[in-house]
Amino acid sequence: MRIEKPAQAGTLESNDIYVQILPNPREEIEIRLKSVVMLQFGKQIRQVAMQTLNEKGITSCILNLEDKGALDYTIRARIESAVERSLC
Amino acid sequence: MLRRSALFMPGNNPAMLLSASILGSDCIIFDLEDSVSLNQKDSARLLVKHAIETLDFGNVEVVVRINPVSSQEWKQDLREIVPVYPDAIMIPKACKEDVEEIERFIFEIEEEKQLTKKVKLMIIVETAYGIETIVETLRCSRRIECVLLGAEDLTTDLGIKRTKEGHEIDYARAKVAMAARAFSIQAMDTPFTDVEDREGLVKDTLHAKSLGFSAKACIHPNQIDAVHAVFDPTQSEIDAAIEILEERDRALALGLGVFSIHGKMIDLPVIQRAQNIVDLARKTGKRK
Predict the structure, then answer these.
(1) Which segments in chain B show pLDDT lower than 70?
(2) N or C: more exposed end of chain B, with fewer CB within 10 A?
(3) Where in the sequence of chain B do the CATH 3.20.20.60 domains occur?
(4) Average per-residue pLDDT in chain A?
(5) Using CA atoms, how far apart are residues B14 and A10, in angstroms rounded to an integer?
(6) How far A28 CA lies from chain B's nearest CA (Å)?
(7) Inter-chain CB proximity A73 and B54 less than 8 Å
(8) What kind and span of H or E run contains A19?
(9) CA B188 to CA B217: how far, in whole Å?
(10) Cβ–Cβ under 8 Å, residues B89 and B63
């Protein structure tokens, strides 16, 4: 499923993550990540993001993530929110 | 389950959800209603859902306050939250009609998802109609475990000013405490809204306790200790209760129905009160 409409979720507060999901002209998922813990958890955050998008059936989008130390469940919840807002 | 305090936490704040279990409250209420803005309701319910699925809250009771039946949100709140097994769902602005409608919908979700544990209900009575029909509401569902008086909305509904002294809610407090007791349901008192006034909080909690409330809702972590201190039995109360129960055992062994301690006759209600104090002391860890 392609993302056709931009949407966002989350905040820039501590322990949260700001998520922006956008249409991608290419048939692929592109994740752009900024994180206060990029060195330690960058790879893990990308994995959680990709897994969440796969579970939601998304095949094409640009996902901008600005992480302020969110745990996995918060990342999941915020991405799900953004996807559902985009699809509604 | 020990429930002296219940701390409200905004459902859309990850940092607060994360610290929920270490703040000392017996119960935490993740709020999807008043503390979440209209355009964040969807996000809050997903965050609370994933938090409950993921975090270990230990012995802390986890409750989710959903949006009222008058809103567009309550069904989706229940669809997301009930399957992750919170300890209870809290229903705002409760009345019989709403509780019945919500329970029917919960039952549908439990059947559809084949859930193995039935979720409990806590209700907030916070309208004049809710107060005046509380008996019908408490009678309509066996899931109800606790009833919370919501004084802020109630005084708004009545068009009167809410004061620290709280005389304006005396009738509502008495009615809620009495009705709850009649159905063996716990009565929880309304939050004290001045989070800086510890003395006022203690006074307010003592007053609620004197009317039959055994718990109080909190809106700030710094209120929890004061609330527990009021509801916990004192050492002298525990000692006196133990003495009564020991004398009861002696009297039973001698085949006596009634006995006295320090010249005061001890009968069944006094024994029951003593047992309640010892039970509460055990739960709070004050007696092994």
Answers:
(1) 287-288
(2) C
(3) 5-231
(4) 96
(5) 10
(6) 25
(7) yes
(8) strand A17-22
(9) 7
(10) yes
Task: Report the amino acid identity of residue B145.
Answer: E
> Residue B183: CB partners within 8 Å, gap ≥ 6?
B138, B139, B144
Query: Do A40 and A26 form a contact (C-beta atoms < 8 A)?
Result: no
DSSP state of B133: T
Please choose, from the candidates B72, B24, B61, the residue with its C-alpha nearest in 3D space to the C-alpha of residue B220. Answer: B24
A70 with B51: Cβ contact below 8 A: no
Q: Residue B163 is encoded by which pair of tokens?
A: 């004061």
Q: Where are the alpha helices (DSSP H) in B147-232?
A: 151-158, 170-182, 198-211, 224-231
Both tokens of B35, joined, read 């503390």
Q: What are the φ and ψ backbone dihedral angles of B40, each rounded to 5 degrees?
A: -120, 5
Residues of B with CB under 8 A from a CB of A: 13-15, 18, 42-43, 46-47, 49-51, 53-55
Dig out the tokens for A34 from the structure.
């900024």
ipTM: 0.94
Instruction: Give the integer Cα–Cα distance in Å for B12 and B73.
Output: 15
Torsion B24-B26-B31-B33 (CA) sign: negative
The yes/no answer on whether domain A7-87 falls in CATH 3.30.230.10 is yes
- Residue type at B95 in one-letter notation: C
Specify the CATH superfamily of domain B5-231. Answer: Phosphoenolpyruvate-binding domains (3.20.20.60)
